[in-house]
Design brief:
single chain; mainly alpha; rod-shaped
Length: 35
């Protein structure tokens, strides 16, 4: 049960990380357009 939770956490983190990277890129692009 603990190993399964750890695996789900790692897989969800690996999915969320590129999403956060894209979000940061979009925010930087909007910030550059506004300035």
């Amino acid at each position: 049960m603990n190993a399964l939770r750890f695996f789900l956490f790692c897989s969800s983190f690996s999915l969320v990380k590129p999403g956060l990277f894209l979000l940061i890129l979009i925010i930087e692009r909007i910030y550059a357009i506004n300035c």
